[in-house]
Amino acid sequence: MAKIKVKNPVIELDGDEMTRIIWQFIKDKLILPYLDIDLKYYDLGIEHRDATDDQVTIDAAEAIKQYRVGVKCATITPDEARVAEFKLKKMWKSPNGTIRNIVGGTIFREPIICQNVPRLVPGWTAPIVIGRHAFGDQYRATDFVAPGPGKLTMTFTPKDGSKPIEFNVFDFPGGGVGMAMYNLDESIIGFARSSFNYGLQRGWPVYLSTKNTILKAYDGRFKDLFQEVFDKEFAAEFKKRGLTYEHRLIDDMVASAMKWSGNYVWACKNYDGDVQSDTVAQGFGSLGLMTSVLLTPDGKTVEAEAAHGTVTRHYRLHQQGKETSTNPIASIFAWTRGLYYRGEFDGTPEVTRFAQALEKVCIDTVEAGFMTKDLAILISPEQPWLTTTAFLDKLDANLKKAMG
After folding, report:
1. Cα–Cα distance between 385 and 151 in angstroms, integer?
2. Distance (Å, rounded) from C-alpha 57 to C-alpha 61?
3. Among 1, 150, 199, 278, which residue is least crowded by beta carbons within 10 Å?
């Protein structure tokens, strides 16, 4: 068959360890045989990030802004052990955080539902979408270890030359830790618009969760700006559609989510969204079954990624020449969601249809009883499972049939 022409380039961001191995297979077997596509390649593997002083991550983010669609493999965010393992120059920040801060927007995470995968929360009968704010907070914080007794202060110096505002944060009697973090009105307003627009797109109510009772100024700002954007720009349309918006305390929202069935958008601050998206994915059956799409407030730029880690344990086995059974579905959906939006942006429905066909092949294959070990053990001890390679080969064969 003739390859489907992808009108504009897609930015490809490679990653680390087991997901990097899987990523290459997906590209070679499930993407390139079907699409005539210009992939702008950036290697975000930890060694190359270190070699370029992380400039490659910045360059990749700028390329996504230019071409409007990126697809990203899972990457390592190094801790002390990883710095030693790879002999890194420093403990580089999360590449995801760097990209989000440059591109802007909100990350929408949604479970990939296979009917034969049992849910740990049986009451969740419909999807829950986590809208994760993608700027600032802990991900751009300045944190440090206080070596001993001393005073921690915080100063804001206005640009207009007026008197600085000073805070005496804490008098350390001994060693400890400290942190300062920030966010921007503009980013919070964009987060609100993205979340409300997504709610309208899906026809679902929207909830924002914060802890404004404790962080009265910081989280209170999120609450106030969301309400302002809703009242001015969205309240009339929500009312017309019979939809609602509500702010809730994060602890109340977590409790409510456990008893509600789904079909709502839950807007979370950056770190809360990181945690709750994993809770939702696991509650629906598997951390490996989750889409993750970064969408700008105007809906015109997107980066799709695998929402899990680099599967280090399986990579260690792979290095020893042993077979693994690693679930590639979230990595495949990083490609398909990116391609879906590329097709939508370019007005090329055949590209969008290809993305949807590949997603359907993944779900149909699992529902037909062919899956990796992580899903098989959720179903029953007797459920047969396939190795990484065998499962990818099965998807390859099923896609050939679907596209034939």
Report:
1. 58
2. 6
3. 1
What whole-number distance in Å separates Cα of residue 41 and Cα of residue 38? 9
Amino acid identity of residue 310, one-letter, is: T
Q: From CA 87, how far away is CA 25, in angstroms rounded?
A: 28
Query: How far is residue 236 from each of residues 85, 200, 202, 241, 336, measured CA to CA in Å?
Result: 55, 12, 17, 9, 34
**Residue the block writes with tokens 């909830």:** 207
Q: Which residues contact 242 (CB under 8 A, 6 or more apart)?
A: none
Integer CA distances (angstroms), 373 to 40, 348, 361, in order: 33, 37, 18
Residue identified by tokens 């990653």 is 15
R_g of the chain computed on alpha carbons: 22
Run of H or E residues at 358: helix 349-367
Are 42 and 60 in contact by the 8 Å Cβ rule? The answer is yes
Q: What is the DSSP string of 309-349?
A: ---HHHHHHHHTT-------HHHHHHHHHHHHHHHHHHT-H
Tell which residue, 105, 41, 34, has the closest CA to residue 303.
Answer: 105
Place of tokens 């966010």: 183
Q: Are strands 10-14 and 245-249 parallel, antiparallel or unpaired?
A: unpaired
Phi and psi angles of residue 330, each rounded to the nearest 5 degrees, phi first: -65, -35
The phi and psi torsions of 362 (rounded to 5 degrees) equal -60, -50
- Residue 274: count other Cβ atoms within 10 Å of its Cβ: 21
Helices 250-259 and 270-283, axial angle in degrees (round to 10): 20
pLDDT tens figures, 175-234: 999 999 999 999 999 999 999 988 988 899 999 999 999 999 999 999 999 999 999 999
Task: Quickly state the pLDDT bin for 309 (edges 50, 70, 90).
Answer: confident
